[in-house]
Amino acid sequence: MTEAEHPGPSEWGENPNGVGPWVEEHGEPVPTDPRYDPDLLAEGDRRNVVDAYRYWTREAIVADIDQRRHPLHIAIENFGNDANIGTVVRTANAFAAAVVHIVGRRRWNRRGAMVTDRYQHIVHHPETSDLIEFARAAGLVVVAVDNTPGSVPLETAELPRNCLLLFGQEGPGVTDDAKAAAAMTVSIAQFGSTRSINAGVAAGIAMHAWVRTHADLEKAWK
């Protein structure tokens, strides 16, 4: 079965950003480039992808992103089936992060990812210790993100290029084991009454802080 036959959660109904069959849209012969999906060319492409990837197969999209993924890894602890993981995956895909690591339970809220998990590398680790071992072997600096005493403000912190940003669950935050293993813990400045911001939102803020420092913005989609 192709993606045209099995649209994801973000592709139900009419997608105003989608395109119809190739011939109707372009009035030209159907391309024979192997990156293109024959079914999408014939039926149209309603997926949640940028225009440059219209009609491409999933495998071709992943291969293209792999050529320019950033050395940024994202990890989130999932010991309580956190509902924010889908948002984290979607944001990691938007910033072309190398891998999203999910620690704890394998099951997570895929609907929140808006089908971007099809194009994002995701690795599961049973325990935090497994993640830390991976990071050390890969030469990644572990940076925990949590508003706790002694943390460094993200706004002034220097995030390493080869970095693994580690997020905790909504509520309890990053586990003590993760904080102990991290090279540093950074916090996000807040000015209102709430004790914390949504874990998915925090992940997006931290990823963008890394992008502002290390990414080649000339390669971003316009």
Automatic annotation (TrEMBL):
Transferase found in the keyword field: yes
Alphabetic keyword roster: Methyltransferase, Transferase
Region (Disordered): 1-39
Gene3D superfamilies registered for this protein in UniProt: 3.40.1280.10
Protein name: RNA methyltransferase
Any one of the GO BP annotations: methylation
Species of the source: Antrihabitans cavernicola
Biased composition (Basic and acidic residues): 23-39
InterPro entries found in the cross-reference section: Alpha/beta_knot_MTases (IPR029028), rRNA_Methyltransferase (IPR051259), SpoU_MeTrfase (IPR001537), tRNA_m1G_MTases_N (IPR029026)
GO molecular function: RNA binding; RNA methyltransferase activity
Domain tRNA/rRNA methyltransferase SpoU type, residue spans: 72-208
